[in-house]
Queue: 2 jobs
Job 1
Amino acid sequence: MGRKANIQSDPNSISFDFEGSDKNVLGIASVIRNNRGEAIAGMSITPPLHEINEKKLDCLSRLIRMGCSLISYKIGYQEDCPVRDIREIREWWKHEE
């Protein structure tokens, strides 16, 4: 596990922080883009590291990516937005639980 992505250039990437200020949490982040495709914000979650396994890491990564995609779409970013409605995230989450 120990990878970091360049979230400025890749709209679908996720950044992982395994070596942040608190060794007991894992940072998972993605980017929010405006209508011109520029990175204007980021969103992250920090679950407890002791609760993370590969399945949860994949699930949380997909969740943060979908959330950022939805916010980006809602503020005008139209390219490569796989999620366009919160109901899509809710439906996906039901199947992941």
Job 2
Amino acid sequence: MEIRLKREDIDLLDTGKKIIPGTDGNAVFGSLDGDYIEVLIYDLNENFLDSGRVDAGDFVYNEPQIETLPNGNQKPDGGGVKINTGNVFEKIRLR
């Protein structure tokens, strides 16, 4: 499978820069039409088995609490994505 990254995504990966969703003009996950979660399934020997997109009803996104540090930087605390893997695997199996 070939994957093409946008230039801004490559730049982000190359610099190791971190962003906090919802701050400084960064979109909150799920707010853009193109947002999705893809799962890649491998066996214990790292052989690729299958992939699929996670339906909106099969995950919950909890926004992190933003802590402002004494130096003015912001640090996310908690939050993230929780995927109902049982539902996702069953849907992939039944395709």
